[in-house]
Design goal:
Elements (H helix, E strand, L loop, with lengths): L11 H4 L3 H10 L5 E5 L5 H8 L3 E6 L13 E4 L14 E7 L12 H11 E13 L5 H12 L12 H11 E9 L5 H4 L4 H4 L2 H17 L6 E8 L3
Parallel strand pairs: 1-2, 1-4, 2-3, 4-5
Antiparallel strand pairs: 5-7, 6-7
């Protein structure tokens, strides 16, 4: 699929890791839905949602975590409180966590309490879509940690990984699990730091790498790096 213009704040190769999420949204989330990019960061995904025909809202934990400008997106900035999300009950059709849930504890929060807040602001039958949730069993994190120790690298290492029991704990709060997929057998961000700019902009390389990664992720799912999860809030 083509990438919307305002998401081009990152090179094509880096953005390729989100194609799976983009395609799912376009196929399964009704246009015009009121959606929240929770922990929006540089707003690249919020911009994609806005340009794709959704009522796009973005929430950032505090002002310092807002990397991009508002870019025409409805942005709210928190007051630093680690759990509370400043929206009314049953405000959204869909809430997205794109590489966010695993970091909540780092600012004094609790992932389960954050999910309970997301349940509160979701409409009955609304969806909670979780992408880039780091999974237990991945080979990438321990190898990156070894490279940091042995070769003085600075690859990002997650301080929490999620397993089957963690996914079930989220589901049991007030959800039905609609989708659970593991993906990303190949490291993308690590490789991106080593590529010249010309290759980072190559759609051919990005597509080839994504295709190879999909094949390997299908063969070796338990060694992949991330979960892609879709939950639906109970109607009751």
């Amino acid at each position: 699929m083509s990438t919307p213009a305002t998401t081009d704040i990152r090179p094509v190769f880096n953005l390729g890791q989100y194609t799976k999420l983009y395609n799912y949204v376009l196929k399964h989330v009704q246009k015009g839905s009121k959606v929240l990019d929770w922990g929006a960061g540089d707003l690249h995904f919020s911009a994609f949602l806005l340009e794709s025909g959704y009522e796009s809202h973005a929430y950032v934990h505090n002002q310092s975590s807002l990397i991009g400008g508002d870019r025409g997106i409805a942005v709210k900035v928190g007051d630093g409180e680690p759990v509370k999300i400043p929206y009314a009950d049953e405000s959204f059709d869909v809430v997205f966590s794109v590489g966010v849930l695993e970091h909540v504890h780092e600012s004094g929060g609790d992932s389960q309490k954050s999910v309970q807040e997301i349940i509160r602001i979701l409409k009955p039958g609304g969806k909670f879509i979780v992408y880039h949730l780091p999974a237990k069993g991945t080979w990438i994190e321990p190898v990156a940690a070894l490279m940091n120790r042995k070769f003085n690298k600075n690859h990002h290492i997650h301080t929490r990984l999620f397993g089957k029991a963690d996914v079930q704990a989220i589901e049991q709060l007030q959800f039905k699990l609609l989708k659970k997929e593991r993906y990303a057998f190949l490291p993308r961000n690590v490789l991106a730091t080593m590529l010249p700019w010309s290759l980072k902009r190559s759609r051919v390389l990005s597509s080839f790498y994504s295709g190879l990664d999909q094949v390997l992720s299908t063969i070796f799912p338990f060694f992949t790096q991330n979960y892609f999860l879709v939950f639906q809030k109970s109607l009751l």
